[in-house]
Write a structure and sequence with these properties.
Layout: H1 2-8, H2 16-35, H3 38-56, H4 60-90, E1 94-98, E2 105-109, E3 114-118, E4 125-129
Antiparallel strand pairs: 1-2, 3-4
Bound molecules: zinc ion.
Length: about 130
């Protein structure tokens, strides 16, 4: 393992973008075997090559900038999925409403009858049945 550590010294290594590229390349590989379309495996190979080019790259700053950009791009999707998971967990205890003033989503405990909800952001009040 010592040769490997020496080989990897000063190289960028693995990050989130690497994992995403490998998963994507697996997806393309599967698509290629399902559809029999050879171009999918070419795309898979390119993604795989790019992933390893990044791992072995010595331009650590450039690679970490790429990863940062990738994470920024991914942020709305991951926020949406986190929110959705939380809402499903909360389904029995809370009800969600959208504020008529600013469009923010508001969480209210369930089973309290008709309540007046005041948005903490814009102050718009509305009466809703919980
Ligand atoms: Zn509001």
């Amino acid at each position: 393992m010592d040769w490997f550590r020496r080989f990897m010294a000063g190289r960028y290594g693995v990050d989130q973008l690497y994992v995403a590229l490998i998963i994507l390349s697996m997806v393309f590989l599967m698509l290629s075997s399902i559809t029999g379309w050879p171009y999918f495996s070419v795309v898979a190979l390119l993604l795989f090559a790019y992933a390893y080019f990044r791992v072995l790259s010595r331009s650590i700053y450039k690679r970490s900038q790429e990863n940062l950009m990738f994470l920024k791009l991914l942020d709305p999707a991951s926020r949406w999925s986190r929110q959705t998971v939380r809402r499903i967990k909360d389904l029995k205890k809370y009800k969600y409403f959208r504020c008529t003033g600013c469009g923010r989503s508001l969480r209210v405990p369930r089973g309290k009858g008709k309540v007046r909800i005041t948005c903490p952001i814009c102050g718009t009040a509305s009466v809703k049945k919980t």
